[in-house]
Design a protein that fits this description.
about 300 residues; mainly alpha
Length: about 300
Amino acid sequence: MRRHSLPNRVAEGQLLFPTCAALATLLWWFPVDSLDWHHIGGWVLCMLTSYVLTETNNANQLIRIRTRMVAAVWLILMATIGSLHPIQHGTLAAFSLAVSHYMLFRTYQRREPTADTFHALLFASIASLFVPALVVLLPCYLWYLLVFMRVMSLRVLSAWLIGVVLPYLFVGAYCVAVEDFAFLVDHWHSLTTLGPTLLSDASCFTLEQKVVLGSVSVVALWSAIHYLRNYYNDKIRVRMLLYILVFQFVVIEFTICLQPQWMASLLAPLIVVASPLVAHYFALTPSRFASILYLLSLVVLVAQAVLTLF
């Protein structure tokens, strides 16, 4: 008989997602009167991303119990970080990356994965248009398709290439049509301009950024390590999908540490990748330490909300 801990019982509760959605909505508009289109657009985008995460979890059974913990983790983390409430490139990239994951996971050992591969890379490439640093993830999809999804072929490789190039072709064509290449120039300049690393200049983060990045990174990193030590409890398909999320989490974390100037833009994509890992840990780990970490995380989230919203 499986022993239920506090986060287990919360994850299995029917009121988890409605409660988190209502709380996120309240925090989105409080305490600042933010009824402008930037905040409204950010709220709509946050809810759409939570829907995509829910569908990704349901379609692939990332968590072995019936729960909406993945979307709940995403909503609460986003709601307690005030800088992510207005619609911005980072949140647009996070939504595109969530859709990319949904399409990529559909390719697992499929006979005809070409269309899903194309759409997965299309949205990943769109995410890199919003946040240029995410271009480092595009070559990683070849590794995912070859090793984890096990669908690599010449047609899949062609779909990968077309999906990567197509958004840039459209943007290039638009720039030619309007005779304004500022976007492409800025995009290339942001990729080729390197700033100080986190080790060489620890003062590049504000207090708010340190608290936010630390709270997300510590819990997500512990969840990833715990999963890698207990992966055998899941089916092979789920293992492959969560391996991809662990790998992407590490890549984005390294990118932030090596180039901290991308922290503000990469925070929302980092949360998208980390949410399933954190949800998997809290929903399925019955240990006393998991309960303690869960309660500590709630305290940190309250402090984070006070710091970033007020």
